[in-house]
Amino acid sequence: MLALRDLDARAAERRRRDLLRAADDLLGEIELLRLDGHRELPDPLRRALWALQLSAGRADPMLPASVRTAQNLVFGLQQRLMAANPRRPDAGAHPGRPAGMPAITPIRPGIEWKLLVLPPCAGAGREPAWLELIEATVDRAGDRWAYANFHARRAVKTQKNVAAALALMRVAWNNYWDLSCEAAHIREALNLSP
């Protein structure tokens, strides 16, 4: 089973690199058009960009008309492909949010919970300080789960808002567990133990 998982990881990495190479080639052609003063994207390049987006898994690919729009689209695609590099230890982010920014998730009408995320790396050479922030964030998530657990037990005893309290406790636990696993992955990538 482990060998199959390694094979899948290698195949995914090979596919990511192939897509990145194709994006680089397309970007080269687009930049030549821009340097020659073209404003509109020729149809063959539009179709190639459409196909690249589909290959990269985009559900609603765009057909940019201008060279500038196509260039920005390829830059965005490259950014996502580079961020998916498995050798790059970094904290994850919620979809559509910058790294280190928490998201609010609704539990039930009128009840929300802030999902913590690990802080982004401050830069090369600052890994020890980053790891301290990561550990503090994981500890904070554990404290928040303990808080939610306390209120869930109290709700069960008093038989008030039990379903909401249990849902909140589950969300808090999942957030803590996800952060713990992500922190372990980062430590492993940096070759450090807990």
Describe this structure as you would to a colleague:
The protein is mostly helical. It folds into two domains: 82 residues; 87 residues, no CATH class. It contains five helices and two strands; from the N terminus they run H-H-H-E-E-H-H. Strands 1-2 form a two-stranded antiparallel sheet. It is elongated.
Summarize this, please?
Helices cover 64% and strands 6% of the residues. It is mainly α.
How are the SSEs placed, and which strands pair?
Blueprint: H1 2-35, H2 43-55, H3 67-83, E1 103-108, E2 111-115, H4 127-158, H5 162-189
Antiparallel strand pairs: 1-2
Helix pairs in contact: 1-2, 1-3, 4-5
What would the keywords be for this entry?
two-stranded antiparallel sheet, 2 domains, 194 residues, mainly alpha, elongated, disordered N terminus
Query: From N to C, what is the helix and strand string?
Result: HHHEEHH
Whole-number total of structural domains:
2
Q: Which structural class best describes the helix and strand composition?
A: mainly alpha
Largest sheet: 2 strands, antiparallel
Counted by DSSP, the helix tally is: 5
DSSP helix fraction: 55-70%
- Give the quaternary arrangement of the chains: single chain
For the residues shown, what is the average pLDDT?
A: 82
- Gross morphology is elongated
Distance between the termini: 27 Å
Unreliably modeled segments = 1-5
Total beta strands: 2
The proportion of residues in beta strands is 5-15%
